[in-house]
Write a structure and sequence with these properties.
141 residues, 7-stranded antiparallel β-sheet, 4 helices
Length: 141
């Protein structure tokens, strides 16, 4: 898929530039799908890290999936959340503290069904990556 090849190179700098120009109120990916900026604490560095991600709204909570453009490695932000689940998201320029809870195996199929109701075929990233994608539920604190 074209986007899986070019997305990792093009999207991060484009997202950073637009975020700076709009004071965080607009994300490029947000023009197509619901998007947020996830603020985590680096698992090794202890420094705040920002990642622009697609998400699936779930009431006042949000589901985020570590697809990493179907690469064979988990994205760094998922390791950050595993080490420190207290994080924050920015939505439309507003920062919201959240608690990140990994989706348990028992709930995994139901959550995937819910995600694919929003984005049909998204689980194809999991099959293409050859790994179980990490899914987190972000709950406002």
């Amino acid at each position: 898929m074209f986007f899986r090849r070019v997305g990792p190179t093009i999207m991060p700098p484009l997202e950073r530039g637009i975020r700076l120009l709009t004071s965080g109120k607009v994300q490029v990916s947000g023009l197509l799908v619901p998007s947020l900026v996830l603020h985590t604490i680096g698992a090794r560095s202890g420094i705040e890290r920002d990642s622009t991600l697609m998400y699936v709204p779930e009431g006042d909570r949000m589901l985020v999936t570590g697809s990493n453009f179907a690469r064979d490695r988990h994205p760094a932000w998922t390791g950050n959340l595993r080490k420190n689940p207290n994080a924050a998201v920015s939505l439309h320029g507003r920062r919201i503290p959240v608690l990140a809870i990994p989706i348990a195996d028992a709930e995994r199929e139901a959550v995937w069904a819910y995600i694919e109701d929003q984005w049909p075929g998204y689980r194809g990233y999991e099959r293409a990556s050859g790994r179980d994608l990490r899914i987190f539920r972000l709950t406002p604190r």
